[in-house]
Design goal:
This protein has about 400 residues and is of the alpha+beta class. The protein has three domains: about 140 residues, Orthogonal Bundle (Helix Hairpins), CATH 1.10.287.90; about 150 residues, Immunoglobulin-like (Sandwich); about 100 residues, Cytochrome Bc1 Complex, Chain D, domain 2, CATH 1.10.760.10. Strands 3-2-1-5-8 form a five-stranded mixed sheet, with no helix packed on it. The longest helix has about 35 residues. The protein is elongated, with a radius of gyration of 30 Å. The N terminus is likely disordered.
Length: about 400
């Protein structure tokens, strides 16, 4: 195609049509030129799609549901193409062969019951032909019975929480945050291949096993969407939705939150890693070993330095998006913590807002954090930046409030 672009082809096509309309005549040569340019435009579009097969198409399906979605999508496009060719073929034939310049006069058409029945029956059969396989797929999507593994997925502003409820891995729980460095997001530095689609803790599942995903949200509407797995389900606070998938082959499959959920909506990636059953068993053992090592006696007394060090990590993972690294927040949108009445006032009020959130604002509840994490982040916020409360919050205090 060289330097010929779609826009150039379309512009040339439009000028040809307009010039012939102004002249009141469309010769066979002009008509042939139009058809030729349309063919070139279509061919160039096919070339672009071939260069990047998923630029204008769905990703390669990795589950039976995703394959059904992919196949039906392709079938519908072919049906649309056939209808397009049929309708415009008749229209162009009528325009070219029955135009005034070759001696034809306008005809008077009259009511025909037969024609009306035909053009009603044909679309009816087309719709039934499309609806039948689509309905079968929707029914299959809803069949979450007899799963091998059940994972609860909770959407937070702006991260995902995962709890393995049943099956191998039961009891594993973690948060999954965006792992793309802030410096890469905020600066004009080169972007990595999976920019904004990286997480610190991916969901790990075994291939060949039916995995049921129970989906909900902690604060606002989210949506758990992984195109290659054929799963897209809204996460609604106070409601439980579910979906399922069985991945065919090992690999890393990426998705995103697909519901506008606030400031960092675009920073809620989903990563699912499918591994062989043996590797999954090994991963489960490693996760349970980490969990056991991370168990802390809530009666232990921590120093302020220990709590501030841990609190800074918790703050960076959960709070920095809204309140900023310097604690200044975003004026008019997210409150500042540096010098705020909450972070410098009574610690009971500070703990309450961290644990339970604040109704009517974007401040979500963080009860899902551990006693140590909540104690640490509150201590950090009260003694960071220009705040000098001088007090500490121990995990035992948080544990008492949970009772």
């Amino acid at each position: 195609m060289g330097s010929v672009t779609h826009c150039g082809i379309l512009e040339l096509l439009a000028r040809t049509v307009i010039s012939n309309q102004v002249g009141g005549n469309m010769s066979s040569k002009a008509a042939a030129s139009i058809v030729g340019m349309m063919a070139i435009a279509l061919y160039s579009g096919m070339g672009m799609a071939a260069a990047d097969p998923y630029q204008l198409n769905l990703p390669e399906p990795q589950t039976i549901i995703a394959r059904q979605i992919y196949d039906q999508h392709t079938m519908l496009l072919w049906i649309c193409l056939a209808i397009f060719i049929g309708v415009f073929g008749v229209m162009f034939y009528s325009v070219l062969k029955h135009r005034k310049s070759v001696g034809y006069k306008a005809a008077n058409f009259h009511h025909s019951t037969t024609v009306e029945i035909i053009w009603t029956i044909i679309p009816f059969f087309i719709l039934v032909g499309m609806a039948f396989p689509a309905t079968k797929t929707i029914i299959a999507m809803k069949d979450t019975s007899s799963p091998d593994i059940t994972i609860k997925t909770t959407g937070y502003q702006w991260k995902w929480g995962y709890d393995y409820l049943t099956g191998e891995g039961e009891g594993i729980s973690f948060l999954s945050n965006l792992a793309t460095p802030r410096a890469q997001i905020e600066n004009a530095s080169p972007k990595e291949e999976n920019y904004l689609l990286e997480v610190d803790n991916p969901v790990v599942v075994p291939v060949g096993k039916k995995v049921r995903i129970i989906i909900t949200a902690n604060d606002v509407l989210h949506a758990w969407w992984v195109p290659a797995l054929g799963v897209k389900q809204d996460a609604i606070p106070g409601y439980i939705r579910d979906a399922w998938f069985t991945i065919d082959k090992p690999g890393t499959y990426r998705g995103q939150c697909a519901e506008l959920c606030g400031k960092d909506h675009g920073f809620m990636p989903i990563v699912v890693e499918a591994v062989e059953p043996e590797k999954y068993t090994q991963w489960v053992a490693e996760q349970k070993s980490k969990s056991a090592a991370a168990v802390v006696d809530v009666s232990k007394e921590f120093t302020m330095d220990e709590l501030k060090a841990e609190g800074e990590k918790v703050y960076a993972a959960n709070c920095v998006a809204c309140h900023q690294a310097n604690g200044k927040g975003i004026p008019g949108t997210f409150a500042a913590l540096d010098g705020s009445k909450v972070a410098t006032g009574p610690k009971a009020g500070h703990i309450d807002i961290v644990m339970n959130g604040k109704t009517g604002t974007a401040m979500a509840a963080f009860k899902h954090l551990s006693d140590v994490q909540i104690a640490a982040v509150v201590t950090y916020e009260r003694n960071a930046w220009g705040n000098t409360a001088g007090d500490v919050v121990q995990p035992s205090e948080i544990n008492e409030l949970r009772k």
